[in-house]
Amino acid sequence: MTVPLQKPWTDLDRDAVAKAPDRPGVYELGDADGTVRSVGHGVLRDELKTALSYGDGDRVRWTETHTLERARELAEEHRERLE
């Protein structure tokens, strides 16, 4: 079983988007209490920019991967954990 991303939560705001790497990765979006609401993958900066513009979460945490394929695999594992 996959565990939550072992990273601290960060507020999902413009600063977080600016600090996000322009690399593939998997991310979790959470509410203000830190409950995971969704898991996504892709080029992190682009994905978080979209999430911020749509108001998809209050907080975010992510981890980089070497490839988009690995990011997709990790995201699927994390989604299974949430079900």
Which short descriptors sum up this protein?
alpha+beta; four-stranded antiparallel β-sheet; 4 strands; 39% helix; globular; DUF7508 domain-containing protein; DUF7508
What does this structure look like?
The chain is α+β, with helices and mostly antiparallel strands and 83 residues long. The chain has one domain. The protein is built from three helices and four strands; from the N terminus they run E-H-E-E-H-E-H. The chain has a four-stranded antiparallel β-sheet with strand order 1-4-2-3. The radius of gyration is 11 Å and the shape is globular. The model has no long low-confidence stretch (mean pLDDT 92).
Could you give a quick summary of the protein structure above?
With 83 residues, the protein is an alpha+beta fold.
- What's the domain count? 1
Indicate the radius of gyration in whole angstroms: 11 Å
Q: What's the total helix number?
A: 3
The residue ranges in which pLDDT falls below 50 over 5 or more consecutive positions are none
Report the β-strand fraction as a percent range.
25-35%
Task: Assign a percent range to the helix content.
Answer: 25-40%
| Largest sheet geometry | 4 strands, antiparallel
Strand order, main sheet: write it out.
1-4-2-3
Distance between the termini: 12 Å
Order of H and E elements? EHEEHEH
Query: Which of globular, elongated, flat, extended, rod-shaped describes the shape?
Result: globular
Q: How many DSSP E strands?
A: 4
Average per-residue pLDDT, rounded, comes to 92
Structural class: alpha+beta
Domain DUF7508: 3-81
Pfam families: DUF7508
Protein name: DUF7508 domain-containing protein
Organism: Natronobacterium haloterrestre (Halobiforma haloterrestris)
